[in-house]
Amino acid sequence: MEDNLKPAGIKVIRLDLYKPETYDNDLKTLAKIFGRVKTADEFIQWKAEKIALVADRVKDLKPENKVKVFGIWNSSLTGTTWKTFAQNTSIHQGLEAAGGINVARDMKDYPQINPEWILDKNPDIIVIGTYDKDVLGYAVKDNTNAAKLRDSAITNAVLSKTNAGKNKKIYIINTKLFGGCKTYLGTFYLAKWMYPDRFKDVNPDQVLKEYFEKWLGIPFKGVWAYPAP
């Protein structure tokens, strides 16, 4: 692309704007281009405060007291192997930032795992990630489909044998709440599911509402996680 545009005097700037570790610098560069440096700085500060809130409340957790979590794509539930969230994924970052131990933390990307592996890890909580717009998202008006998906997971022949299944600690979240500037938004839901006593005064929906209305400039609506923590 650069080779085609350079002769015309058009400069090309490539920005990732997805990886949390590089997002702030990318946003600052974009803000300079559009003359919105002050707004970008204010957003970055707001985001940092939200990230710090969660980090501060889980920082004293000892390894033996941390919740073991297994993340899975909703589309994997009908198969014989399941795709999970391991290192290098934004949901893994969210699970660990929320104070949990991702049982797939020693793997990378989105590995396929088998039922025996899940039973051996025996997670305390299972988080189902979905980008299905009919289950969770901005246009979803009720939790009907999310409830059906959760019920199918709770009664799954394998998942029902885990501690998470036995205690019905299986939750569903929209994967659009992760990645780029958004991973901390999903982390609020994860943290409250894992440690409700530590986050009694925190309403993840309220944090998301502020993000939508203050920074995106659009009304907050939809269903983003189920059951609501």
Notable traits:
7 strands, two-stranded antiparallel ribbon, 229 residues, 9 helices, 5-stranded mixed beta sheet, alpha/beta, globular, 2 domains, Rossmann fold
Structure description:
The protein is an alpha/beta fold and 229 residues long. It folds into 2 domains: 2-57, no CATH class; 63-226, Rossmann fold (3-Layer(aba) Sandwich), CATH 3.40.50.1980. The protein is built from 9 helices and 7 strands; from the N terminus they run H-H-H-E-E-H-E-E-H-E-H-H-E-H-H-E. Strands 3-1-5-6-7 form a 5-stranded mixed β-sheet, sandwiched between helices. A two-stranded antiparallel ribbon has the order 2-4. Helix 2 packs antiparallel against helix 3 (37-58), helix 3 runs parallel beside helix 8 (183-194) and helix 4 (90-97) packs across helix 8. The radius of gyration is 19 Å and the shape is globular. The chain starts with a helix and ends with a strand. Belongs to the bacterial solute-binding protein 8 family. This is ABC transporter substrate-binding protein. Residues 1-202 form the Fe/B12 periplasmic-binding domain.
General shape: globular
Give the overall pLDDT as a whole number. Answer: 93
Listing every helix as H and every strand as E from the N terminus to the C terminus, the arrangement reads HHHEEHEEHEHHEHHE
How far apart the termini lie comes to 46 Å
Strand arrangement, major sheet? 3-1-5-6-7
| Tally of helical runs | 9
Text of the CATH class of the largest domain:
Alpha Beta
Largest sheet: 5 strands, mixed
Number of distinct beta strands: 7
Q: Which structural class do the helices and strands define?
A: alpha/beta
Q: Superfamily at the CATH H level of the largest domain?
A: Nitrogenase molybdenum iron protein domain
CATH topology of the largest domain: Rossmann fold
What is the CATH architecture annotation of the largest domain?
A: 3-Layer(aba) Sandwich
Residue runs with pLDDT of under 50 for 5 or more positions:
none
| Strand fraction | 5-15%
List the domain count as a whole number. Answer: 2
Helicity, as a percent range:
40-55%
Taking all Cα atoms into account, the compactness measure Rg is: 19 Å
